[in-house]
Write a sequence for this structure.
DNA sequence: TCAATAAGTTACCAAACAGTAACTATCAAC
DNA sequence: GTTGATAGTTACTGTTTGGTAACTTATTGA
């Protein structure tokens, strides 16, 4: 019987993956970016309850984790910053969709399901 | 263009689902319980780094969330407590497996992959 | 009667995380 | 040269989470 030093969060792929999308806002941010809401300001507008500080932190985290790119265009009037998903980010998004499906099926009452659906984006909108 | 009050974590099925398996140890606990490690003491042995306090808290959470049942057998010598997955818990486990797959494929180097695989359980063991 | 085992509980402390509000930098238009 | 927009940063504060260590309850077996 193999001797191990046991399970712990930080050696577990599940723990690590969940870390990527913890920080509370990250799944939503990834979702919005994928759907063309990819500026700091427009992200803020879609998530009125997040503070600039936390939004910055989360975006920096996602960048460090290799899930998004930060693309600054200085050439323009006020500097513009665009975010977009990396390949890893995109593949994680697919996983998040599965999590969404499970949650929608198992956790939400009907009213909430409608509300959630009403927030789904088909393509970029401002 | 529909007016909404925006996205936030607590109305999002993804956020709610992630909450279920946050608390750091919960995915591991669910995994172990499913594989027959279903006593307080044997769970502790498999996770040497969790404290009794936190283990108790996590188990109570999982119970409240309807993912596990707590089953006390007083008839025996010292009281025995068994935990097992509910149907919801089982279906969540399937989701966690998908998270595991993604994490193993995208996050771990080879050595860690081997370590993770070495911890996988096929059936109950002590 | 005393120690051991199972499964906790309690009080206390430290670190991590999140929120508020004020401040910064850059450029363009007026 | 002041205002306004974009995209932040910083200092401070409060809440949540997790960790340690000592204590608890119930029962069995020596």
């Amino acid at each position: 019987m193999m001797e191990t030093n046991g399970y712990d969060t930080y050696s577990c792929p599940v723990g690590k993956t969940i870390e990527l999308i913890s920080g509370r806002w990250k799944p939503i941010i990834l979702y919005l970016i994928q759907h063309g809401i990819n500026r700091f300001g427009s992200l803020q507008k879609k998530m009125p309850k997040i503070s600039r500080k936390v939004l910055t932190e989360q975006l920096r985290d996602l960048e460090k984790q290799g899930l998004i790119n930060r693309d600054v265009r200085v050439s323009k009037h006020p500097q513009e910053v665009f975010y977009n998903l990396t390949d890893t980010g995109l593949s994680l998004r697919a996983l998040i969709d599965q999590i969404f499906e499970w949650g929608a099926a198992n956790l939400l009452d009907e009213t909430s399901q409608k509300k959630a659906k009403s927030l789904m984006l088909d393509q970029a909108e401002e």
